[in-house]
Amino acid sequence: MNPELEPFVPLVPVIDLADPLADRKYYAERAAMVPAPDTTGMEVEDRTVPADPPVPVRIYRPHGAQGAVVWMHGGSWAMGDLDTEHPWAARLAAATGVVVISVGYRLAPEHPFPAAFDDVYAVLAWTAEHAPELGIDPERIAVGGHSAGATLAAGVALRARDEQGPRIRFQLLNQPGLDDRWESWATGLAETLGGGHEHMASAWRHYVGSAPATPYAAPARAADLSGLPPAYIATAEFCPYRDVDITYALRLLRAGVPVELHQWAGTFHGSQAILSAEVSQRQIAELGAALRRALEE
Alpha/beta hydrolase fold-3 domain spans which residues (predicted)? Predict the structure, then answer.
């Protein structure tokens, strides 16, 4: 474990998702402890994307931005919203100069798959259709997210490819949960830290039920990864999804998709939120740098 992160390990909450309403409240309370971002020089606007049902979004528009990322929060598909993601979405916009469209997708278990997935795809399609109105270059639209949000990003990239939908320039996938199958998950400390496998199993049950997930829900199940957008994939050493994320990156490469893969030694799932740690600062900076490069080229 990274020595800067190790003192925080006993403080990592164990969330079993047995009571999603209580867990959401706790998740929001912890998110409120994150230092407020600086939004100087940035327009922040709440809008609603027409869909069935309508999808709330929060748009962060730095001065002079042209590219955009449709961005999804983490929270195991059962927690999180536009407010809990506000510190991170604003930081990403400030660091990249890119328009960040943060998506308030519906949460499980009240709204299981494909509710959140459909919400995200509707926002992606709306962004592409309304790019001129939003001041966005339609050829510079990315998708991305943390954890469950990164899973949604990878899933909509598959759907956009399959349906010849909106053109996606880039995938920014930070510690995505790409596989619902226990046998693909990393063991050791990753198996228990923060609830580990038990938490993940509960999250997947809430999201997809007891049946095996489809490739759009669990992208690692997709048989063909060719034709997908270039990707940046970040993994954490003590993250249950570490092995499947690395395998997914290799499969993308073998399918001819350009990939940057960074396996962060000594880190755990979500530890980049510990802003006092130098390694966390590097993780966040690299996410921004990867997105900026992809949309500037």
Answer: 69-271
Residue 211 within a domain: yes
CB 55 within 8 A of CB 103: yes
Q: Is residue 26 part of a domain?
A: yes
Query: Would residue 271 count as lying in a domain?
Result: yes
The pLDDT tens digits of the residues spanning 19-38 come to 999 999 999 999 998 888 99
Q: Residue 69 is encoded by which pair of tokens? A: 């990322």
Tens of pLDDT, residue by residue over 58-91, are 999 999 898 999 999 999 999 999 999 999 999 9
Please provide the distance, in angstroms rounded to a whole number, between the alpha carbons at the two ends of the chain.
36
Q: Is 1 contained in some domain?
A: no
CATH code for the domain in which residue 158 is found = 3.40.50.1820
| Residues of the domain holding 74 | 6-296
Whether residue 160 contacts residue 168, with contact meaning beta carbons closer than 8 Å, is answered with yes
Chain segment 199-213, per-residue pLDDT in tens: 999 999 999 998 889
